Amino acid sequence: MIHLLTEWFAQAQGWLFQSVIEPAMFYAGLADFLDDAFEGTEWFLIGLCELLLIFLVLRPLEALVPVHGFTDRRARWNDFVYTLLHRLGFFPLLIFFTVDPLMDHVAGWLRLENVRPFNLENLAPDMSPLASFAIYFVVLDFFDYWFHRAQHHFRWWWGLHSLHHSQQNMNLWSDDRNHLLDDLLRDVYLALIALAIGVPPGQYVLLVSLSRILKSLQHANVRIHFGRVGEWLLVSPRYHRMHHAVGAGHESKAKGSLGGCNFAVLLPIWDIVFGTANFAAGFAHTGVRDQLPRTAPDGTIVPGRDYGRGFWRQQWLGLRRMVEFSRRRAG
Q1: Where are the alpha helices (DSSP H) in 65-200?
Q2: DSSP 286
Q3: CA 271, CA 265: separation in Å to the nearest integer?
Q4: 274: which DSSP letter?
Q5: How far apart are CA 99 and CA 93, in angstroms?
Q6: What secondary structure, in 3-state letters, does 140-159 show?
Q7: Interval 129-181: pLDDT, tens
Q8: Residue 301 belongs to what H/E stretch?
Q9: 202-231: average pLDDT
Q10: Tens digits of per-residue pLDDT, 301-313?
Q11: Terminal C-alpha separation, the chain
Q12: What pairs with residue 295 in β-bridges?
């Protein structure tokens, strides 16, 4: 069955590339990038498959076992626009023209200097592909955990990342609700880690796709957890919702932490080991504390911070927060 699906996918990739992408590249004078464009076609199709799977599985679950009703009907649509841009549209093009050339340059420089990246598979030459996939999965998730903690620790970075947390109606598309600069930094970081430990390109594609599907589940508006044991093995919607909790999950300053809890991206073990786990049983409300109205000393109601409603407004306000928070720390 897997072989058949792989064959169908390869045929679809070849047809799309030859019928649409290749002619468009020649017309635009970008024939020198055809090899990279073929790889980009693969990412496009994978993103399309992810969208279909997420919608067909998670959308019915959100209707069947929701955590709460939405207070803003535009919330899901706005995040869906982010998902389209990140998995099918603008963001893959941004990666194509930035991260891919950067990785090619780094790999070429290493070969020129006769430096061979450390390859985890060399530790056990007879390792099966499934075992190596699992190892890469764990190692990349470990580094992703520390990247996530950094997003919450440095104020300028929180200015960008807080856009992701500003969704008060978190839903199945909310994983992609990020500032473009924030996502670009993460993609470069993880690509460098993957290059350093020798992740094969084919496995890296599968690792990224699996990660994105699991994170879509985590952000879904579903009243789901994985049980007493499962909660310790894989980040569940309930566990991750606590990370998004207003004033408790990502803003508190617990002793011994960088601020907040449940930073694990896929595997809760990192939170357990480094003391940032919170297995509270409730399904918390999401958002950022400074979004909420507050009462001034004179009794007047001060409206909360505006994070914007549309894509471009949210991107612009993210840059403004980054500058504002940087200055505040400097002062």
Answers
A1: 74-87, 90-97, 99-112, 129-153, 155-165, 180-197
A2: B
A3: 10
A4: T
A5: 10
A6: HHHHHHHHHHHHHHCHHHHH
A7: 788 889 999 999 999 999 999 999 898 999 999 999 999 999 999 999 999 99
A8: strand 301-302
A9: 93
A10: 888 899 998 999 9
A11: 61
A12: 301
